[in-house]
Structure formats: structure tokens, C-alpha cells
């Protein structure tokens, strides 16, 4: 297999603007030495600047989505789609147990010190109970509570109304980064983890068409798989799917030997409960990748940080375990992360 080397992290405009604002604010307070990152190049020619053309949903996908929305008759769909978008964009990662424990210990220490300063005759057991209760209620009040999403039939349609077009565009853009840099890459097999509406299958098909001979879509939600299949069939269960060779599963293929040319996870890492689950998932997907692993998340600070966690985990393995193997066989697997 030809050597492929490339990794890209492109941030959406919002993140860039936010970062530029932070940078200019900190530069104002702490003057920084000027570094010529552009090496004399014009800013608009810098390789990190990309032109975002307007993308359109494939006609068949658009028509099928409209039909499903019409038939679902969901009340206040527009409001619910807007609320879901807001929720997903402001969602944070759950706080890690170790961080929570540290926070509790430091709060408890502070409260004990406060109580000791007041001195006097105290019933130690009663004080301890009071402090413990206070710690518990403070943590409950100030800690972000991550809640898992249950994508049932109705939430699936709301998600589709809210995110189908945006999700499709983001994935298509991310895959374009591969297409642009590696035009000879022609994937035959695809594994999409957390496939939801099947946007990755549609976007991949738009770039590589019928070279794709097997697309395995894995989603733990059976209603989501049914919805994705309805989209493929133009909301007509007797019709042939618009894209062939798409297979829906609720679990990842068990055998570690099964690999796919292209492995993707779009907006799915944010659905996993903690950093351990995310890291394990990324490593499993990496083992299933024979050429490219593509991870896409929202262009928010949280989305960006989740991708950085994934990148660090992958680089760690790459540096310490896979380097020798890859060198021996002159194979290079690549990851593309996009927010
Ligand atoms: C936010 S949706 C993204 C869907 C799709 N990738 C897209 O871009 O439209 C996340 C999906 O991940 C699925 N999911 C969450 N946890 C999962 C898990 N452990 N295994 C497989 N799928 C999972 C959910 O059911 C949901 O359909």
C-alpha cells in the first residue's frame, strides 16, 4: 500500500474568531515578540485558509427528509430543532471522577478550616455531617451534569430537522481534505461509528461513488438506523436504496482483523460519557483503520478539546508502538480531525 502521510486540523470560523480575540486580548496585556508565521506569504494564500463554498444536500436526500418530516407530524418541530441545536452546541464534557474528587477534598478542607477558626465547643460528629452535606450540595450546585441522549424515533426526526444539512456539509468538507491531498485514494470499505442519519455514507458516496463496495454504519440506536435507511430509500420502504452496499449494525464488528479503508466518527465522541470511553473508542477505531480515520466534532471549545484528546492518544500510540511496525511495512495510517 502506498505511503500516506497527512493530518489536518481545520477549525471552523467561529473557533478561529474566538481564538483571534483571545490572542489579541492577551497580546494587549502581555506584549509578545512578533513571529512571522506566514513567512512573508500573503495571509489569503496561507495554506490554513480554505474557501468554503456553499454545499447543497443531494436532491434525493432532501426530498426524503422532507417526506419524513411531513409524515412525522411533530408538534413545534422548528422550536424543538432550535433547542436541540442550542443544546448540542453548548454541551460540555462530563466532569471526570478524579477532578470531582479533588474538588470535593479541597472544598471539605476549606470548610473544616472555616469551622476551626470559629473554635468553641463543637460536636465533631455533627460538624462532620454538616460539612459533608454542604460539600455534597455545593458540588451538585456547581458541577455541570452531562446527560446521555436517547435517540428515539421522535428525537431522530428532530435531530434530522436540526442537523442533517450542517452535519452533511461538515463531513463532506472534512472528506474533501483527503480528496484534495490524496486524489488517488479510492476507498472500497467504510466504517462509520455513530452513523445516525447516515450523512457520512451520503457524503462519502458523493466523493467516491460506486468505488465504495461496503459501507458499515454502526449506531447503538435502532430507531436511528431505521431513519437512516428510510432516507436512503427515499422514504419508500419498497424502493431500492439510493446508495447500494450500506449495512446497518448496532455494534462494532468484533473481530480486530476486520479493517476498513476509511473509518469515521462524526459528532459521536461527544455522545460518549467520559474520556476513558472516548479514548478506548478512538483506539478501537484506529485498529479498524487501514488508511484514514476521520473524526469530526462541533467547532466549539469542547469539540476542539475532544479532538485534541483523541489526537494525543493516537500520537502516543504512534510514537511508542506503531512506529516500528509502520516503518517495517512502509505503511502509514492517517488521521484527519475536523471541527
Ligand atoms: C449526534 S449523532 C451523530 C450522527 C451522525 N454521525 C451524523 O453526523 O449525523 C450521534 C449518534 O451516535 C450514536 N451513538 C451514541 N453512542 C453510541 C455508541 N456507544 N455506539 C454507537 N453509536 C452511538 C447515537 O445513537 C447517535 O445516532
TrEMBL record:
GO terms for cellular component: mitochondrial small ribosomal subunit. GO terms for biological process: methylation; ribosomal small subunit biogenesis; translation. GO terms for molecular function: 4 iron, 4 sulfur cluster binding; metal ion binding; methyltransferase activity; structural constituent of ribosome. It is found in: Mitochondrion matrix. Keywords: 4Fe-4S, Iron, Iron-sulfur, Metal-binding, Methyltransferase, Mitochondrion, S-adenosyl-L-methionine, Transferase, Transit peptide. Pfam families: Rsm22 (PF09243). Its main location: mitochondrion. PANTHER family: 37S RIBOSOMAL PROTEIN S22 (PTHR13184), METHYLTRANSFERASE-LIKE PROTEIN 17, MITOCHONDRIAL (PTHR13184:SF5). Belongs to the methyltransferase superfamily. Rsm22 family. Associates with the mitochondrial ribosome (mitoribosome). Mitochondrial ribosome (mitoribosome) assembly factor. Binds at the interface of the head and body domains of the mitochondrial small ribosomal subunit (mt-SSU), occluding the mRNA channel and preventing compaction of the head domain towards the body. Probable inactive methyltransferase: retains the characteristic folding and ability to bind S-adenosyl-L-methionine, but it probably lost its methyltransferase activity. This is Ribosome assembly protein METTL17, mitochondrial. It comes from Xyrichtys novacula. The lineage of its organism: Eukaryota, Metazoa, Chordata, Craniata, Vertebrata.
Amino acid at each position: 500500500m502506498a505511503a500516506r502521510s497527512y493530518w489536518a486540523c481545520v477549525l471552523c470560523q467561529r473557533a478561529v474568531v474566538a481564538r483571534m480575540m483571545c490572542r489579541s486580548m492577551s497580546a494587549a496585556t502581555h506584549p509578545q515578540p512578533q513571529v512571522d508565521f506566514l513567512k512573508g506569504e500573503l495571509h489569503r494564500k496561507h495554506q490554513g485558509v480554505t474557501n468554503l463554498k456553499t454545499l447543497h444536500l443531494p436532491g434525493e436526500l432532501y426530498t426524503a427528509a422532507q417526506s419524513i418530516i411531513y409524515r412525522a407530524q411533530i408538534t413545534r418541530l422548528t422550536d424543538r430543532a432550535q433547542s436541540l441545536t442550542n443544546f448540542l452546541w453548548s454541551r460540555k464534557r462530563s466532569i471526570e471522577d478524579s477532578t470531582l474528587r479533588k474538588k470535593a477534598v479541597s472544598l471539605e478542607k476549606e470548610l473544616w478550616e472555616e469551622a476551626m477558626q470559629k473554635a468553641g465547643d463543637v460536636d465533631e460528629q455533627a460538624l462532620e455531617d454538616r460539612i459533608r452535606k454542604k460539600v455534597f450540595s455545593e458540588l451538585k450546585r456547581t458541577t455541570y451534569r452531562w446527560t446521555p441522549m436517547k435517540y428515539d424515533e421522535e428525537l431522530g426526526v428532530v435531530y434530522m430537522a436540526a442537523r442533517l444539512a450542517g452535519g452533511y456539509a461538515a463531513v463532506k468538507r472534512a472528506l474533501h481534505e483527503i480528496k484534495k491531498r490524496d486524489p488517488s485514494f479510492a476507498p472500497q470499505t467504510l466504517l462509520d461509528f455513530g452513523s445516525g442519519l447516515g450523512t457520512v455514507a451520503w457524503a462519502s458516496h458523493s466523493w467516491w461513488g460506486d468505488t465504495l463496495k461496503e459501507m458499515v454504519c454502526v449506531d447503538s440506536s435502532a430507531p436511528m438506523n431505521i431513519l437512516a435507511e428510510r432516507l436512503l430509500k427515499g422514504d419508500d420502504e419498497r424502493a431500492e436504496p439510493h446508495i447500494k452496499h450500506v449495512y446497518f449494525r448496532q455494534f462494532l464488528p468484533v473481530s480486530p482483523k476486520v479493517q476498513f479503508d476509511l473509518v469515521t466518527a462524526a459528532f459521536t465522541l461527544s455522545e460518549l460519557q467520559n474520556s476513558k470511553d472516548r479514548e478506548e473508542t478512538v483506539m478501537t477505531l484506529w485498529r479498524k483503520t487501514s488508511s484514514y480515520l476521520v473524526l469530526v466534532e462541533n467547532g466549539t471549545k469542547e469539540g476542539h478539546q475532544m479532538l485534541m484528546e483523541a489526537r494525543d492518544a493516537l500520537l502516543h500510540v504512534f510514537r511508542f508502538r506503531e512506529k516500528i511496525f509502520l516503518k517495517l511495512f512502509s505503511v502509514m495510517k492517517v488521521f484527519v480531525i475536523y471541527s
